[in-house]
Amino acid sequence: MNLTLKIWRQKDSQSKGQMVDYKVTDISEHMSFLEMMDVLNEQLVNAGEEPVAFDHDCREGICGMCSMYINGEAHGPDRGVTTCQLHMRMFKDGDTITIEPFRAAAFPVIKDLVVDRSSFERIQQAGGYISVNTSGNTQDANAIPISKHAADEAMDAATCIGCGACVATCKNSSAMLFVGAKVSQYALLPQGQVEAVDRVKNMVAQMDLEGFGNCTNTGACEVECPKGISLDNIARMNRELMKASLK
Amino acid sequence: MALDSRVPQGPIKDKWTDYKNKINLVNPANKRHIDVIVVGTGLAGGSAAATLAELGYNVKAFAYQDSPRRAHSIAAQGGINAAKNYQGDGDSTYRLFYDTVKGGDYRSREANVYRLAEVSANIIDQCVAQGVPFARDYGGLLDNRSFGGVLVSRTFYAKGQTGQQLLLGAYSAMNRQIARGKIEMFNRHEMLDVVKVDGKARGIIARNLVTGEIERHSAHAVVVASGGYGNVYFLSTNAMGSNATAAWKIHKKGAYFANPCYTQIHPTCIPRSGDYQSKLTLMSESLRNDGRIWVPKNMEDVLAIREGRKKPTDLSEDERDYYLERRYPAFGNLVPRDVASRAAKERCDAGYGVNATGEAVYLDFASAIERYGKEQAKIQNIQNPSKEKITELGEKIVEAKYGNLFQMYEKIVDENPYKMPMMIYPATHYTMGGVWVDYNLMTTIPGCYCIGEANFSDHGANRLGASALMQGLADGYFVLPYTIGDYLANDIRTGKIPTDTPEFDEAEKEVKDRIDFFINNNGTKSVDYFHKRLGKVMWDKVGMARNEKGLKEAMAEIKAIREAFWKEVKVPGSANEMNPELEKAGRVADFLELGELFAKDALMREESCGGHFREESVELEGEQKGEAKRNDKDFAFVAAWEYKGEPADAVLHKEALEFKDIELKQRSYK
Ligand SMILES: Cc1cc2nc3c(=O)[nH]c(=O)nc-3n(C[C@H](O)[C@H](O)[C@H](O)COP(=O)(O)OP(=O)(O)OC[C@H]3O[C@@H](n4cnc5c(N)ncnc54)[C@H](O)[C@@H]3O)c2cc1C
Questions:
Q1: How confident is the model at residue B622 (pLDDT cuts 50, 70, 90)?
Q2: Which GO terms describe its biological process (chain B) (predicted)?
């Protein structure tokens, strides 16, 4: 198929950006979206132009690098996938596709479609861990049984790949789904209890400091999340915060 | 220089404990004055950085991604081995040790493997303490699954995302140290060279991938944990950015490179669909527990399927060739990876491949669905269930076991694998070869260490499933943090290493010159153009089956591609900005050298072992006719190559492998 691409080009964080039109031809429906971008970039390099910078690495939906806003949706029109798992069969011959970076005040653009998500790093450094040193003398892994239900729920929360689609989708650029998932993983496990109070307080404080917006319960983040992280995690974080403020 | 593996004396089961008791230590107050650089934050580098910082060293960690958590380890699916014997099925340190040495076709260093098995149980304890949500049973205890090549159930897992969860565990431990200021994290930074002062590794040159700035970083020791080099084939299951640059740069500065030809071609990956393909996707080995592998028996059926006149489901049982079950009745579909891959290639080379490219075989779940369906009908007390009911019940079970993999397959191939058999083909997956290290995990450059997939490690000529995660975390959490102290104990009075010295000047100049060359070269062809050509030679001539003629051709062809690359490559943009093409150019330049050494190593090794199959070395008669033939008399050694300029001029050093605790035997899966 033949397509018109409208792509956000921005030289660096200081420069102003703009949408630029490109044409690609003979795109196979079996290609992934990023392979289509590879074709465009090869074309640009051969024409002596600068290729479009975009983040990507594992190309199987788990590393969380890729982050395109395609036709007004984080990771594009398919559900439950990252940009690298989106396939061209979701589009038709002759389509015009708009491709932008994830937009949020807390995710400044570095270049073209690449954004700076280090705010997520700092939130996790504020408390997203259990304070246990590596020693070889930790107690046996089976010493504390954990119900299958709690372990499975913790796993569902821990599935978050930290891509930032929730933030890009939210009209307030809220990071509640991301932080909720992190807080929940530990809140659901006995190992996480000791530091629970400080963890949730510190992570939420850092989130606010980074300039993420408030949650107004539209649920858009859950819909766009490539890993199906549930809104329950936000509710759980709010409960944890409430408990913490009473202590 | 003679190779000294520094394996301690004494009985194998006491070596590590005795060694740790005698090793030099650095007192906690002195650790504050010692800096360590860790390149890479996958399972190996992430766990090492966190542990070294906990001990009190000042750590500087580097990764080319925008977060340590995005290292390629995140993609590991199936699980991690540990000799916990929670299932009471007779597992033990010795059994894990034995399975790993045998699985590696007797080409690994016994003492290292034993230590690996010994610390494996600690890994699981540590991860659980960190909050890693491993799968559990209804009693609340940890669950296990089985992997190929072993007879016990020792694999711990977190759904199909074990690597992700383990990496997030190591990452959380890193975050704690980053917050304390004990780890300084350099995301979006790429190491482009190591700096040696008085023969010792004392720092690195790195490029800030956002600004393009070239930076100098000094330390008392440098740890390289940069992952494997499977992308030398262009197409592999590795991440797009996985590369050999850090490992290759230290090789060029004096670290020997061991067994480059030992590469794992994984049997179950989604086949290539066209020339635009950028990577290949793994379908976990666990699928072979329930999937049966076959191709049509008759050529007419092959053609009919390719032309769309028939579907695989149209073929009756006796029109199918379940070739693994036919050739290996004892292990059937669960033979080790190298054996399964070669068997698929054999059928496809004979013309029986079932897709347009002729490079695909079926992985069929119909029997499993029927078996589980009938079982469920019994359990649920359904009398005379219809065929549809059985299928429905069976599909539910298969979904519970492998749902995420089936979904991944369907997204990529656009076909429902519950109804139609999957199409699969082998793909490059893991590299057992790598930088040579001694028992301390130190390379032949003093003060330069190498851990994780980047070293030549514990897997010999073939790695068993779920053992890479175990090795990465063993190296980073439990081995390196001890062994590095032995070296650093001599550095407590050294003081900070200055970076305004001629050694740093020189290394920086080399790096800058190369970048300037790429930016200014007036070429016409993209980096990928050369990478794809290299990949094709590697796959065709240094792939699943190798012979003398092909390997000699490969060496010459790779050299020619390399020469063309340096003349004709085109890198757009400038050096002082984010420039992904420039990053790729540097990596491919290194692959173009590594590829040739790889072929040279394969040519030298005139035996078949593990993933390295030489067509000249097969069993000619008897029950094993046609199978790989190892040659212990002449080749029971590690091949460690010393850099001498051109890859073809590399000098071979041999580390003899001694097996005192295991008898060398032929692997038989018949
Ligand atoms: C799809 C897939 C599934 C797998 N499943 C399993 C499994 O189920 N069980 C199992 O045991 N093994 C599995 N493996 C193998 C296993 O995942 C890897 O061998 C292992 O994770 C490698 O870890 P590592 O820490 O050595 O390297 P990696 O995780 O590859 O990390 C490399 C690090 O080095 C950094 N880096 C690289 N070069 C540079 C440079 N020049 N400068 C700065 N930083 C650099 C990267 O940024 C990254 O942080 C799987 C592999 C694949 C591909």
A1: confident
A2: anaerobic respiration
Amino acid letter for position A229: I
Tell me B289's DSSP state: G
A136:B168 CB<8 A: no
Would the CB atoms of B125 and A140 count as touching at under 8 Å? yes
- Ligand 1: which atom is nearest the Cα of residue B77? 8
Could you give the 3-state DSSP secondary structure of residue B641?
strand
Domain locations along chain B? 267-428, 508-629
CA-wise closest residue to A109 among A12, A212, A210, A207: A12
Assign domain B267-428 to a CATH class: alpha beta
Using the atom order of ligand 1, give the atom closest to the CA of residue B157: 8
Q: Which of residues 159-218 of A touch B (CB under 8 A)?
A: 159, 161-162, 185-186, 189, 191-192
Q: Which residue is associated with the tokens 């520094």? A: B6
CB count in 10 Å sphere of residue B21 = 8
Q: Give Cα separations from A92 to A28, B13, B557 (angstroms).
A: 11, 64, 41
Under DSSP, is residue B287 helix (H, G, I), strand (E, B) or coil?
helix
pLDDT at B493: 94
* Single-letter code of the amino acid located at B516: D
Q: Which residues contact A172 (CB under 8 A, 6 or more apart)?
A: A213, A214, A215, A216
Kindly tell me if the per-residue pLDDT of B274 is higher than 90.
Answer: no
Is A45 in CB contact (< 8 Å) with chain B? Answer: yes
> Out of A62, A130, A134, whose CB is closest to B51?
A134
Counting ligand 1 atoms within 8 A of each CB, the residue from B66, B67, B72 with the most, and so the one to mutate, is: B72
Domains and CATH numbers, chain A: 3-111 (3.10.20.30), 118-246 (1.10.1060.10)
Contact A45 B581 (CB under 8 A): yes
Q: Which helix (H) or strand (E) holds B35?
A: strand B35-39
Residue with tokens 């069929």: B364
- Tokens linked to A137: 């003398």
pLDDT of B81 higher than 80:
yes
Instruction: For residues B458 and B337, give the distance between their C-alpha atoms in angstroms, rounded to a whole number.
Output: 17
pLDDT in tens, B583-593: 999 999 999 99
pLDDT-above-90 percentage for chain B: 89
What is the CA(B166)–ligand 1 centre distance, in A?
A: 12
Q: How many CB atoms lie within 10 A of CB A36?
A: 22
Which helix H or strand E contains B301, and what residues bound it?
A: helix B299-306
Tokens of B301: 């059926």
Q: Which pLDDT band, with edges at 50, 70 and 90, does B289 fall under?
A: confident
pLDDT in tens, B337-348: 998 999 999 999
Say whether B165 and A155 touch across the interface (CB within 8 A).
Answer: yes
Catalytic position from the list B107, B109, B202, B337:
B337
The domain made up of B508-629 is a member of CATH 3.30.470.20: no
Per the CB < 8 A criterion, the answer to whether B65 and B187 are in contact is: yes
